[in-house]
């Protein structure tokens, strides 16, 4: 499944760690768990053959936002994040890994502010909780 391959490649590049779940587990998670409580949107490259990005969000949370490493810096992440903001209630939250400095800069440029820190993830990496308040 091209979506899962892109998601895994992007996450691995972002945190410098291989996936802790199998490819098949990620396919199941995307198709059965993530879609149950989130709107899942894909950004496709211009040929329509490769997934360039994925957004999974609900009115309060951005649960997944990944852009394929080859397509980063082209505005895809911002477009997906803006779609999440449009459907948000009053506030939108997300977590990012502390090791992912690129994501931190991206979210802060796009109006998110740090509201917490912890280690609320399976990877057992330090993470940062961000909040965006709808104007």
UniProtKB/TrEMBL annotation:
**From the UniProt record, which GO molecular function terms apply?**
acyltransferase activity
Q: Where is the N-acetyltransferase domain?
A: 1-135
Its EC top class is transferase
The protein's matches in Pfam families, at most eight in alphabetical order, are given as:
Acetyltransf_1
Q: Report the Gene3D superfamilies cross-referenced here.
A: 3.40.630.30
- Extract the signal peptide range: none
Q: Which CDD domains match?
A: NAT_SF
Q: Which EC numbers does the record give?
A: 2.3.1.-
Which ranges of the sequence are coiled-coil? none
SUPFAM superfamilies found in the cross-reference section:
Acyl-CoA N-acyltransferases (Nat)
Keywords from UniProt, A to Z, are: Acyltransferase, Transferase
Q: What is this protein called?
A: GNAT family N-acetyltransferase
Specify the species. Paenibacillus artemisiicola
């Amino acid at each position: 499944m091209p979506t899962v391959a892109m998601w895994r490649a992007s996450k691995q590049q972002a945190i410098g760690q291989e996936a802790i779940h199998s490819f098949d587990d990620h396919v199941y998670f995307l198709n059965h768990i993530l879609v149950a409580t989130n709107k899942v949107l894909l950004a496709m490259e211009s040929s329509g053959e490769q997934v360039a990005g994925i957004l999974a969000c609900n009115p309060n949370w951005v649960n997944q936002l990944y852009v394929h490493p080859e397509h980063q810096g082209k505005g895809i992440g911002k477009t997906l994040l803006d779609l999440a903001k449009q459907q948000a209630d009053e506030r939108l939250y997300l977590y990012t890994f502390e090791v992912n400095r690129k994501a931190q800069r991206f979210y802060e440029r796009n109006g998110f502010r740090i509201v917490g820190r912890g280690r609320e993830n399976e990877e057992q990496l330090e993470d940062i909780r961000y909040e965006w308040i709808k104007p």
